[in-house]
Every structure is written in structure tokens, then in C-alpha cells.
Write a structure and sequence with these properties.
The protein is mainly β. The protein is built from no helices and ten strands. A four-stranded antiparallel β-sheet has the order 2-1-5-6, with no helix packed on it. A four-stranded antiparallel β-sheet has the order 3-10-7-4, with no helix packed on it.
Length: 103
Amino acid sequence: MQAVIKTGGKQYRVAEGDTLRVEKLIGEAGSSIEFSEVLSVGEGDSIKIGSPTVAGATVIGQIVSHGKAKKLIVFKKRKRKGFARKHGHRQMFTSVKIQQVKL
């Protein structure tokens, strides 16, 4: 069974057994987390689409780890002004393993 969940301002298509990286969530590694914003759920021809969410549907996952993504360089320059600025950014993430999709 597949589902589309919303977390961290983004949408993810998930199925049981998937591991995905989402924006940083609060919780210890190994703890369980429940996603209640399920936008669609189903398999094959029997797909339920919510408006905006499917009532009663939840996705349960387990937090695997927390970490930081690779560094991104943000470089700004204004031509002929002598202005150049270089910044780096590393986004925090949480790795989640999907255990169950409930309808």
C-alpha cells in the first residue's frame, strides 16, 4: 500500500519498508513517529484522495538517525560594484523508515 504524506512543507510518496530523508523532526533515534497529514492512500485502482487529507489515515515510521546534508555554497555577486559574498549551508535532516500505512 502506498501513501503520499506531507511533512516539513514537502510531499513524499511512501510505501512500507521505504527509508527517506525529511526535514529535521523532534525525537530520539529508534523512537516511533506518526504522520497524520496523509494526502492520498491506496493501491492500484482503490486509491483514496483526501481534500486536503484522508480522514483516519496515518503512516507510522521509525526514526533511524539524524544528520546534516552536504554543504551548499551560496555565492552572491553584483557586477561592477565590488560586492561578493560567499556563505555555506548544511541542512539538518532526519532519516525515517516507514513501518506501516494505515487506512
